[in-house]
Design brief:
This protein is α+β, with helices and mostly antiparallel strands. It is 14% helix and 29% strand. It has six helices and 18 strands. The two termini are 36 Å apart. Residues 74-279 form the Fumarylacetoacetase-like C-terminal domain.
């Protein structure tokens, strides 16, 4: 099952795509795919409606694919969560997860334009597995409890501006929160439909050249531990998103001259079972 949102910016409608490729309208069942939908057994209700034949097919041809989650609550990001990425950037392997935040208004659709910020010279790419929380979590004691709080998985692009992030003082947040810096989607896959989220192939291309090629099995801190750990410091609520880190292959880790993104570049990325994104870079 693939949960998605289709339509113009700000006017997307909820939908579901089944294994045979048919897209069904979810408006009779829910006003949107958001935290409330996940918290109130939305996935189970969609399955029941599909089994009962209660949903009408939707002609999605030509419709824009928006971000598959409406109104994310928090976007919590884990930095340096792949050993090879930490090594390529010259950073020490962290003893605990490195945590930073992105604002929800950085989220755009998977095929929407990504803007290189004004005065940017080091805009970078990062393919990441996104975890969508489906149940409120606080002070979790076990990784099993953590996994039970995950509602869905999603392909996420954690776009970064390295000069803003690293060279301008303060926290990383300045280099992570420029507009359009978190394309999401194209769809959510319910957690129960992903057999092993810790063994998914992930890739990213820039202008057709393969830049990142790894697997979620290479995380330093696995998904369950990340969720458990975060719950000690934050209340995780339905609709929150966790970006779980990126593997080696980012521009920051390349030899000089580093191939940072420019307007006109094309970035494509995918995670096994979670679909594919494509963005053309524009100039802010």
């Amino acid at each position: 099952m693939q949960l998605l949102r289709l339509g113009p910016v700000g006017d997307e409608r909820p939908a579901v795509r089944t294994a045979d490729g048919t897209t069904y309208d979810l408006l009779p069942l829910t006003p949107d795919v958001d935290g409330a939908f996940l918290a109130n057994d939305g996935v189970a209700r969609v399955r029941a409606a599909l089994d009962a034949g209660e949903l009408e097919a939707l002609d999605a041809e030509g419709m824009r694919v928006g971000p598959p989650l409406a109104r994310p609550g928090k976007i919590i990001c884990i930095g340096l969560n792949y050993r090879d990425h930490a090594e390529e950037t010259g950073a020490a392997i962290p003893a605990e997860p490195v945590v930073f935040l992105k604002t929800p208004d950085t989220v755009v659709g998977p095929y929407d334009e990504v803007l290189v910020p004004r005065r940017s010279v080091k805009t970078d790419w990062e393919v990441e597995l996104g975890v969508v929380i489906g149940r409120t979590a606080r002070y979790l004691e076990s990784e099993e409890d953590a996994l039970a709080c995950i509602g869905a998985y999603v392909l996420s692009h954690d776009v970064s501006e390295r000069e803003f992030q690293i060279e301008r003082g303060g926290t990383w947040d300045k280099g992570k929160n420029c507009e359009t810096f978190n394309p999401l989607g194209p769809f959510l896959v319910p957690a129960g439909d992903v057999a092993d989220p810790q063994n998914l192939e992930m890739r990213l291309w820039v202008n057709g050249e393969l830049r990142q090629n790894s697997s979620t099995k290479n995380m330093i801190f696995p998904i369950a531990e990340v969720v458990r750990y975060l719950s000690q410091f934050l209340v995780l609520r339905p609709g929150d998103v966790i970006n779980t880190g990126t593997p080696a292959g980012v521009a920051l880790g390349q030899p000089e001259p580093k191939p940072y993104l420019r307007a006109g570049d094309v970035v494509e990325l995918e995670i096994e079972g979670l679909g594919r994104q494509r963005q053309v870079l524009g100039q802010a």
